[in-house]
Amino acid sequence: MTGARTRTSLSDAAERDRGLVLYESMDPIEGFSMEYLRGEIVLRASPNTIHNRIVELVRGALPHPDLALWTTTAVAITGQSDRPEPDLAVTGGEHADDYFTAVPSELVLFALEVVSTTRPARRRDYEDKPDIYAQGGIPAYLLVDPNDGTWRLHTDPRPEKGRYQTLHMGAFGEPVVLPEPLGVTIGTDRFRTYPAG
Asked: Please, what is the end-to-end C-alpha distance for the chain in angstroms?
């Protein structure tokens, strides 16, 4: 393997999504993260300080001993060509680092996305990613939105339907209770909203 992503042989390419093959062959672009979502390569600019602080607060609330916490790591959605890159992904500590370019979704216990300020990013986080993460069977997807000071916790995925069965919603200041196997409460009283404007 070369570069930061897996290089795909031509024989494999004939069997795979051409966009995914291109995505996997690209070298990272400094200052951007890359995702492959619904047949499109998506570049995201480096996040702002409020975004990063929320990720760090969530990360700090999670017990670490038997978990691996991943930032800027793609998740390979089982049975799909999507490769989202959550702001934080949590796996059991075993075997996730056996994968060079993307962690298989069946190993992911939790995904966090902090919504940015752009309309396309908001649409992806609210509309596309809940379905993508549910298809991957990820037990919990937390969407935190500093635009309006709210959060949404999607749980009980139905991969065959590409939908989560349960949605919990709250505002900053109200705790988020993650289901087992994490079984932890995340305080949101230190989350900040983006400045108006």
From this structure: 45
